[in-house]
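Reply to dn_fold:

You asked what the input looked like. This is it:
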Amino acid sequence: MTFVIWLTGPSGVGKTTLANALHEKLEEMGYTAEVLDGDGIRSKLYPDLGFSREEREMHNRVVVHMAETLARNGVITIVSVIAPYRSSREYARREIEKFMEVYLTCPLEERVRRDPKGLYARAMRGELEGLTGLDGQYEEPDNPELVLDTQKMSVEEEVEAVIEKAIELGFLPETCDSKPDNNKKQVRN
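and this is what came back:
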């Protein structure tokens, strides 16, 4: 049962939080899973890479290749990356056999409040231009398998929704335990 869960959405929407919670849940369920975090890959492989459209698309192609390789080798792969262009996400869908796009959304005010990396604060001070989700382009997905409003759902509810969608798509067996551990409530920043 290997497939790729592709989490996409603007900065501060909760991709990394959900990716880590999904990883934990899938491992608890007995699956081998891995998180590919776009920021982590960028900082380790090519820290000087910029954020032009071409550079973002190249970065996304690298992530797609890594995800496809992991999935092909028996690892459920959770990708956490902004991927602001539909063309990059469509490329991922073409290259990865079992692909589930999950679009995370929440209002700008909530993303600014969370601002885990301080990016919105920097952008609002004029220190950063083209922040995806503020003044940078983000092309919303046309037909994601799942849309989650992270302001209205707990992380546990998001995990449950993703697991249920994976079951519905036939990526996980119907008999799997899709109930999150309610003793470990996770709060967003």
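Residues 53-72 form the longest helix (20 residues).
Hope that clears it up.
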